[in-house]
Amino acid sequence: MTPPEAPEDGTATQGIKPPAVSVCLEVLKNRSEFLAASRARKQGTKAMMVQARKRRSDEAADPDAIRVGFTCSKKVGNAVARNRAKRRLREVARAVLPAKGKPGWDYVLIGRATETSVRPFEVLKGDLMYALKKLHTDRP
């Protein structure tokens, strides 16, 4: 059985990524990285809270990488509900951040209790794009 993204006739050209392959983002894992983002800019939307900060060049192996973290509190629900919300946030980040995120920035996406898991996916993408636009505009 071939994967769904493989061509039906089996003729894949060498060196071209199949459509199911997405751009890899670096994932924040340490508590200190999440805390640093929490002290930076924040923008809330109906479906999520987005925290963003410009990283110092000495903080990461690749200074131009876009790094992202995901979190949901117990207010979102049980473990199943939190994991579903985080899966949706990860997919939205894969779809939006490579195009709209800025290299050298850290982003933390925080799920909301009732909205993150039930909001339509296209609207969820729009929420993230709106938050990024607001976060990257210079404030007085």
TrEMBL record:
PROSITE patterns: RIBONUCLEASE_P (PS00648). Its EC number is 3.1.26.5. One of its GO terms (cellular component) is ribonuclease P complex. It holds the Pfam family Ribonuclease_P. It catalyses: Endonucleolytic cleavage of RNA, removing 5'-extranucleotides from tRNA precursor. Keywords: Endonuclease, Hydrolase, Nuclease, RNA-binding, tRNA processing. Consists of a catalytic RNA component (M1 or rnpB) and a protein subunit. Belongs to the RnpA family. This is Ribonuclease P protein component.
